[in-house]
Amino acid sequence: MKHFKFYTKEDILSLTKVRRFETKVGERLQYLKTDGEWPEVLQQSPAKYVLIGIPEDIGVRANYGTGGTTTAWLSFLSSFLNNKSNDFLPGDNILLLGHFDFGDIKFLIDSYAYNPDELIEAYRHAVNIIDEEVENMLKVIAASKKIPIVIGGGHNNAYPIIKGVAKGLLKAGSIPLAQINCVNLDAHTDYSPTEGRHSGNGFKYAEEDGYLGKYCMIGVHENNISQSVLMDIHNNPFIDYITFEEIFIHERKNFIQAVAHATGFTEDNPTGIELDLDCIENVLSSAATPSGISALQARQYINFAATDAKVAYLHICEGATQLADGRKDDSTGKLIAYLVSDFVKANAQD
């Protein structure tokens, strides 16, 4: 893996503040002891979950977005590793594998004086490189019959995650076809046309390539859906959505009913759980919103979906602690840590 850094025990403990009379999650997490080929070593691990980071903003920039989604991973990790290990979340069923670093690709692109159109094309070409490496990693994790927990990064990574997990589950004999379903709590559909890879069309590419079966979106803002995408969705019986306005403005369903509808719609296959942090009110992201769901509702979504769905993976994306335009919020990482903790607690009860 050219762009992947595998973590050692020393890497993990360097971020863990060890104290007397208490144990931190960072002291209980498993890590990869590479005495051989890493896929074989991973498969032998008793861990149920494999945690990885994709701290990149190339896909976001390729979608004309504000960079900064590189910053959430380390902030999350610092918070998550320092949670208390206890009966609620011991942490020993999670293997912290490491993170991708595509900084060399970003540096190469930024080193050339592209005009704006050429810059976008360069970023979109780079997303294809990211796709391949992320897909290969996720395929190995899923084939090992473990549940990936992926912290982004842009929502462009939904495509290689879906593709890799579908291929891995097929290889493991868990599904008859390389195809999985997804539920997505998001202010956007991320089902834009296949005009070149970016953070706004991961699910469209996954669907067109046959790896995405059913797809249900929760909380999409009506202002964010283009008419062409709306028509595509309406003409596809395998895609469904419930808008933010249906839930909170017109009150046709309450929030948990909407989540239950999504998990019911996708219950026939293993299902990826997606959460785009730009749907949470005032959380720092490339498309931050002043009108969205609360952090509490995001946690309820994760808890319900992790309990009710046949979970294929968890993907939390688009968050940042600092954006390229200078905006900062150090609390984003701690919120992600809550969400990951909620997921493991809920799903581990199965």
Summarize the entry for a quick read.
The protein is an alpha/beta fold and 350 residues long. The chain has helices at residues 9-14, 25-28, 38-44, 58-62, 72-81, 103-110, 116-143, 158-171, 202-208, 227-234, 244-249, 255-265, 295-308, 332-347, and strands spanning 4-6, 49-54, 94-100, 147-152, 180-185, 212-220, 239-243, 271-276, 311-317.
CATH superfamily: Ureohydrolase domain
Structural class: alpha/beta
CATH topology: Arginase, Chain A
Helical segment count: 14
Q: Tell the overall outline.
A: globular
Mean pLDDT: 96
Q: Considering DSSP H and I runs of 4 or more, what fraction of the residues is helical?
A: 40-55%
Order of helices and strands: EHHHEHHEHHEHEHEHEHHEHEH
- Cα Rg: 19 Å
- When the domains are counted, the total is 1
Share in β-strands: 15-25%
- Kindly state the number of beta strands: 9
